[in-house]
Amino acid sequence: MYRNQKSDFLFIVHHQPDYNLLFNITFDDQFNITSMKIHHFITFILSMISMALFAQTLKPGFDKEEYLEMLRITQYQIDTPFKKLTVPQPLHHRLEYRSPVVGMKNRWDLWTNGKNDAVISIRGSVGDMLSWLENGYAAMVPAQGSLKIADDYTFDYHLSDNPRASVHTGWLTGLAFLSRDILFRLDSCIGSGMKQFYLVGHSQGGAINYMLTAYLYDLRKKGRIPADVKFKTYCSAAPKPGNLYFAYDYEYMTRNGWAFNVVNSVDWVPEVPFSIQTNQDFNAVNPFTDAKKMIKKQKFPINILLGMMYSQLMNPPVKAVKNYKKNLGKRAHKMINRSIPSFQMPSYVDNCNYVRTGTTILLYADADYAALFPDSKTNIFCHHFIEPYYYLAQKSDY
Predict the structure, then answer these.
(1) Which of 153, 308, 330, 359, by CA, is between 20 and 30 Å from 91?
(2) pTM for the full model?
(3) What is the model's pLDDT at position 301?
(4) Which of 1.20.1250.20, 3.40.50.1820, 3.40.1410.10, 3.40.50.10170 is the CATH number of 55-283+316-395?
């Protein structure tokens, strides 16, 4: 390990293992293997083939082996010592850079395979109240605009072309704090000739990863990032990042197999935040826009009865959206300001129609899974950790 004297950022460099020592191989002039068990030799050959295949050109489509490697990388983001990890170590990549902790306990890692691709790995929630405030900061803001997060920095973003698209304020703020460092390292990788990048995050990291993907796609469209740079996204165990119009644009920009949302069918985290749909959340042409006018045209007392029914159906979700903005917007921001006083409160939108976003890869929890990972009344994250996702991904037929 060493520190960059200018930035004081921590770099951690790993070297490829010495397979000669690992498998106890000795060589003579004819490359004879004199001390190796046959299964070790097979493992060695398969590992070499796997590494060669992984180093090929980035291709669209869900790839189970890619996702498993992303989980092996993601496990190094959890806030426990490496020695306690139960998922195997990454097979094809090494950790090159770890960012400082910024914002609401946000952090990211850069991994490379030493050849032609890199992985940008976003950390999820950690055991700190500020990190969980980021999740609870669930009022929505427009998917294009700016956030004033520091006295010397305003984060400008454009995650969707649709003016009705909106996203989770907390996870967008997480991206805002990480963005400058990510772009700096990304530019360095591109400058060195690297053009292929995996974007990965689990849980909160997956939520931020949605924002990062849309952010980088926009920068590429504007020419800030070269057009030949490819991104492939794996959001794992991620909650819902924004409303329906953000989902439409995100799914369109990543179409044809360049972004995936991987979900364990018994994990509750992908089911949040709460979704509230009002009559304002539909496309312009819909039967609800002029509903009140149509009701007034009805004969008495039908018009009165229909008007009462309409109000009873429509008013509660509108009131719920106001409470969302009040409690998970203004009040949440005041609590965050105690730790980050320079972060200015943005303007929230009247929308909380959160939806599941992206091409979903369902990891179905069957009876065998239930036997290994039973429900727990004391551990609400029993189906959310990396281990159950890794198990289900391994046995899946994708």
Answers:
(1) 359
(2) 0.86
(3) 86
(4) 3.40.50.1820
